[in-house]
Amino acid sequence: MAAGTEHTQHLRIREAQLDLGGDPYTSAPAEDFEGKLLEAQQQLELLQRQREHLERQKCEMDDLNRRKEEFISSQIEISERLSTSVTSIDRELFELRQELEDLEQTRQSFAAHLARIEKVEPEGWQRESLSVELDRALGLLEQADEEFESACAHFAGGRTRGIFGNPASGPSQRSGASFSSNFSAGLAYNLPIIVIGAAALVVFLLK
Asked: Most buried pick, 63, 75, 166, 179, via CB within 10 A?
């Protein structure tokens, strides 16, 4: 009888021990669920930050692409304008240089004619050579007139046409005519020289 009672007590002690040891196993699933839930929340927050970062990068890239397209469009437009302007400037400079060269040559020619005309002194002509000297002097005036009319025609459409005055009829038409016909066609600007020469001639003849 005593042996049966002892066996029964050993069984109860074992059951009590089993009951005490079961609490850690029943709380473990709850703690594991909370840990997984926290981890999932952290992952969601990480994904949210990554999504926001990607959206910012996309916005920045879209803005860069827009600015790039604006640059390319402006680059093409300004390049065309500059290219056209450079071509126009080159052409203008070429024409200006050519006109300057022509003006320099014209100036030298005019200066030479002026020097020759100013050297003519009718007062010093001798009676026996009067005809020859007069023909030579009138020839100088005719050459100067031809040069002047030719220059007016050459520069008529240029920027410097105003420096030659305003010829009334443009270049005179010559076909081997005498100096009198050339004078009527456009030699009015030489009238003072001719008048002075004629007056000197009259004085000489009256001596």
From this structure: 179
> What distance in Å separates the CA atoms of residue 83 and residue 87, rounded to the nearest whole number?
6
What are the 10-residue block averages of pLDDT along the chain, 207 residues in total? 53 50 55 82 91 93 94 95 96 91 92 91 86 90 92 84 64 41 44 52 48
Query: What is the reported pLDDT for 156?
Result: 86
| SS (HEC) of the chain | CHHHHHHHHHHHHHHHHHHHHCHHHHHHHHHHHHHHHHHHHHHHHHHHHHHHHHHHHHHHHHHHHHHHHHHHHHHHHHHHHHHHHHHHHHHHHHHHHHHHHHHHHHHHHHHHHHHHHHHCCHHHCCHHHHHHHHHHHHHHHHHHHHHHHHHHHHCCCCCCHHHHCCCCCCCCCCCCCCHHHHHHHHCHHHHHHHHHHHHHHHHHHHC
Among candidates 81, 192, 79, 202, which has minimal Cα distance to 134? 202
CB 121 within 8 A of CB 136: no
For residue 67, what are its two tokens?
Answer: 């600015």
Q: Say if CB 172 and CB 182 are below 8 A apart.
A: yes
Instruction: Give dist(CA 190, CA 141) in Å, integer.
Output: 8
pLDDT at residue number 81: 94
pLDDT at residue 186, as a whole number: 45
